[in-house]
Amino acid sequence: MWHLHSSTTVAAALVLTLAIFSPSAQAVWPMPANYSEGKIGVEIKRSDFMIKSNVTSSSVVNAAIERYQYLVEHEYFESPYDFNEGALKTSGYIYSLEVGVQSAQDVFDLETDESYTLEVPIEGKAVISAKTPFGAVRGLETFSQLIVANSGRKIIKNAPVRIVDAPKFPHRGILLDTSRNFYHVDAILRTLDAMAYNKLNVLHWHIVDAFSWPIESKVHPELTEKGAYSVDMRYSYEDVKKIINYAKNRAIRVMPEFDMPGHTFVVGEAHPEIMSCLNKQPNWDKFAAEPPSGQLNIADPRAVSFAFDIITEYSRLFLDLGFHMGGGVLNEECWKEDPVVELYVRDHPGESINSLIVGWFTQMSEKLNEMGKIAFAYEDPVLNYNFTAKNTTILQAWVGEDSVSRIVDKGYRAIASPWNRYYLDCGNGSWLSNFEGNSWCDPYKGWQQIYSYNPLANITDPEKQKLVLGGEVALFSAQSDETTVDRYLWPRTAAFAEIMWSGNIDPNTNTTREAIKVAPRLTDQRFRMVARGIMAGPLQPLWCIRHPEACLHPSAAT
Amino acid sequence: MWHLHSSTTVAAALVLTLAIFSPSAQAVWPMPANYSEGKIGVEIKRSDFMIKSNVTSSSVVNAAIERYQYLVEHEYFESPYDFNEGALKTSGYIYSLEVGVQSAQDVFDLETDESYTLEVPIEGKAVISAKTPFGAVRGLETFSQLIVANSGRKIIKNAPVRIVDAPKFPHRGILLDTSRNFYHVDAILRTLDAMAYNKLNVLHWHIVDAFSWPIESKVHPELTEKGAYSVDMRYSYEDVKKIINYAKNRAIRVMPEFDMPGHTFVVGEAHPEIMSCLNKQPNWDKFAAEPPSGQLNIADPRAVSFAFDIITEYSRLFLDLGFHMGGGVLNEECWKEDPVVELYVRDHPGESINSLIVGWFTQMSEKLNEMGKIAFAYEDPVLNYNFTAKNTTILQAWVGEDSVSRIVDKGYRAIASPWNRYYLDCGNGSWLSNFEGNSWCDPYKGWQQIYSYNPLANITDPEKQKLVLGGEVALFSAQSDETTVDRYLWPRTAAFAEIMWSGNIDPNTNTTREAIKVAPRLTDQRFRMVARGIMAGPLQPLWCIRHPEACLHPSAAT
């Protein structure tokens, strides 16, 4: 039982308020699938607290233990709700945390089991049990979030705690564009840390786009020489390996994307001969959604051969099974005006720009399969151009909220990235200097809009629901780089992460999870992230965080 | 003359492009009033470079010299445009900078002369001449911005340089709200640094609002005890003095605002007896623009007496001549339903809520005058309630773009803060947890919208133009705190700063300054700010920064 050493009426009223609005598992984000707790405060025995595992051969487990051992020792997190809380009474000590892992095998892919159980008794040893090293990583994060600082001690407030947890969706990601603006490796590693705090598991690395080619190529070094912004703005092979390893230790896959054949102006810096509509000005808008225009010439066998080179080289560098071949926003006008395309279509009866597009993706998919990869693509080739992909292809739905259901209706697996919910770059004005209007995807996506979106909406067939693998928020970087990445991603991506991990429906009540009820927990997570060095912005005035019932929209109040 | 030691065709083309789009004073932001330059590169003689002044008795000058001496020694700024520039030839050395100041008197107010001249010869000694210490501060900032790094040296590219400079507007500020969320002192000092880099001169400190009372009060300590978010979230007298002094050394005034009688819910935490409509729920929207509702009871003499206490105490703590008494967004319904107000109006024929409002501001203005202050207020009491203020009162126009002209038409001085241009908090979604809509002042204000706004628009009479003292961008902090302040303010506030310093019309061409032409210079400034520790976000993909002509909106292209 709690005894407030310095209780006040205000504090008591506050506790009451929070009790209404926040579930008991206040500190854990995203909400575990199953959670039960008691009322006993226990202290972490700091002087000799140890995390150990039954497996010693897993580098993932070893790295995670080292990380969380450090965190438990050094983190001193006070929840914003505990700002004037006195010393809480504790009845026992937790001396150690044992991490049991069934198999030390550390392959991490879409099939990997991330489940774990966590038990914190009222005295003695806490225990995590997981089938895989990656489940152990998730359990360790949960354990770290149970701990709060209180009067110089570190305590878990509500022992005994029993958590049986597993993610709702296997693909929970962030798309990060490093082509419009560059992010140094440190900013990417920091983002991976933040992802791990929210149990996200895919960094969809949108490495290249029209603007720059920031990654080393050993096969086509001229791409980087002419296409990287500077010698300091390049990812070497060593950088990539470092990022992949850092991610894996946090149970995060790194899926590369080489977006082709659109958005490839930068390839033209080195190879104008394989390009169509290269940097048309000033009416670029006829040829591309944004400047500079340029698409690989799909009628030119040299362009196909170039794309094969790219797929081959980077399929080897990136170890993940997934490889995203792009395919978003193709501009037909670009090819219609290209003399090579024109000639090809004229000389090949039955061929058309549509058939060339289908041919392109057919060849790329086959190449990826040949390289042992699972092909990812944006929805466009399948939904707009009648490309009949292999059913192993995974399509990223981004255009409308009905794209997910359209994809699974065709029998493909889908990841949800609807721009009107998940595009985090929107709502920051135009980046065209002479244009005072808004961004194309205005307005800004508030965390409530992100939280209330259900990737399974309008899909009732359970078999089709299974085809929805998860989702990705996206940060296209026209107006972002390492100076602002935290602010764009967090805490909004934490809101996304809970829906991805826990689903849109609370299984305990069988009702939709509501933003109104989670704001205090999300704020708790936001403050924890700030304490861990992630510059996530506040959701509300702190007064509202403390009085959630007083800061509601009247016409929507419940 | 320049000799590119490692010239390439690409680099040459780049220089040509930039020459079209960026004025020669590329490095200096905001653009000086008069600028001329040569073509000789000179090197800063680093080993013994010294800044000295003829006056030694000005703490402002001494502090500025120390600051810029450090900066010239330690800053190593490479413009993003110079990323692959080779070593540039220089023909001479600058050995020292002499800062001539006519008067060491260091009173800084609306009348203070901030003009300076700066001469950088092709060899020898650079010279700043200023009438006041504050002009010297501006000149030093300009000098620091002329210097760029090149192959391990620090050089000024275009000597001889001659700058004769003075600001267009005397009041160039940022309104920072520290009530919705708290900013630790360090974040405020960092913001003052950033302001100095942009020659802004007013920190309008919106200290209190409905949500918290973060400042120490010696007269009413209960306000802080009950109204500050925590003991760690308070500004002590010492903190305030530190901020004022830090600001003064950067030629920045600190003008406090105590917004009354509206937006005062937090006063009710300690003094509910002097409040009307205190925290009405759930239909707060009838009584306030945002929760929690609460206005000082304008019919209660105790409320007037309380406000006098506040004005008296803080008029002494804050040394600036300006004191902002608030007055924005008054809600009549709040008072209509108040029994004290009702009774008062019933018992006093001829009195009304309008007359009580006028009475309130009349008394507050007189109190401020008595304390030797210049009263500032939002436009509302004068434009909405027929309050006839003394003509020394300065009104902050925030509602519409025509507010400025309406104010000066009445003979008052105005500062421009139109919400649809200058409210930097807008466009980040709602902070009401249960509301998926946008912020009231959507959309986000892009830098182009800020840059294209002319505070003198529709005011043709030169006498009336003189009544427009300048402007303020505003950051109300419902969704901002020290984790995000840089990102909200910069680089957009730099765009604002140039219009404030240099005016909307370029005197050399007598044409409107256009965003399209300044983007490269603004980006230069943004990168310099990042190098100085301000996390200002990027405006565009770096590719567009380097190819400004290629990233224009086609229908608006010039």
Automatic annotation (TrEMBL), chains A, B:
Key word Lipid biosynthesis present: no
MF terms (GO), sorted A to Z: beta-N-acetylhexosaminidase activity; isomerase activity
Cited Gene3D superfamilies: Chitobiase/beta-hexosaminidase domain 2-like, Glycosidases
Gene Ontology BP terms: carbohydrate metabolic process; glycosaminoglycan metabolic process
Assigned keywords, A-Z: Glycoprotein, Glycosidase, Hydrolase, Isomerase, Signal
A cellular component annotation (GO) from this entry: membrane
Enzyme class: hydrolase
Entry-linked SUPFAM superfamilies: (Trans)glycosidases, beta-N-acetylhexosaminidase-like domain
Reactions that this protein is recorded to catalyse: Hydrolysis of terminal non-reducing N-acetyl-D-hexosamine residues in N-acetyl-beta-D-hexosaminides
Domain Glycoside hydrolase family 20 catalytic: 169-503
Signal peptide start and end residues: 1-27
Known EC number: 3.2.1.52
Domain of life: Eukaryota
Pfam families associated with the record: Glyco_hydro_20, Glycohydro_20b2
Domain Beta-hexosaminidase eukaryotic type N-terminal: 28-146
Family: Belongs to the glycosyl hydrolase 20 family.
Protein name in UniProt: Beta-hexosaminidase
Gene: NAG1_4
